[in-house]
Structure formats: structure tokens, C-alpha cells
Amino acid sequence: MILGWLRLGFFGLIGLTVVYFIVGIYSRSVRREKLEKRWVSEELEGDRDLWIEDGMKAYEKGLKRKLMWLIYIIPMAVFVVIISFVNW
Questions:
Q1: Whole-angstrom Cα distance, residue 56 to residue 28?
Q2: What value, to the nearest 5°, has the Cα angle with vertex 9 and ends 3 and 10?
Q3: Do 75 and 12 form a contact (C-beta atoms < 8 A)?
């Protein structure tokens, strides 16, 4: 019985990892697009690629990037709560 739960948890983590990477790629592409549109709309001067890379470095250190860890935390917490209620 415990082996089945471990297998379910293992494959669940694999699925969550795939979701995490897909959301990360999508989120970075949306952020890069916003930076590119901002560059054009504000008619900024200087090196465009360097400005966008600086914006992406700031994004990597920001709160939105850290909140992506909730992709792991929330489903695992719900899984543990459901398992404990079912087995109690």
C-alpha cells in the first residue's frame, strides 16, 4: 500500500516539474515581450538587447519568479491533507 502512494507521489512530482518548466518558459517569454513593447513605446535610447537582459535579470530575482514554487507547494500540501483525512 505504501509503495503505491510513493509511486503516485513520484509521478506527481514529475508532472509538477513539467508544469513548473512550462510555466517558467511561458512567464519568461511574456516578461521579455513586455520589456520589448516598453522599449518601443517609450522610445528609449541605448543598447536595446542590454536593456532587455537587465530587465530579465531583475525578473529572475523578483517575487513572481519565486511564487512559481507554489506550483510544487500547493498540490503537495493538498495531497498530504487529503491522504491524512482519508486514512484518519
A1: 8
A2: 90
A3: yes
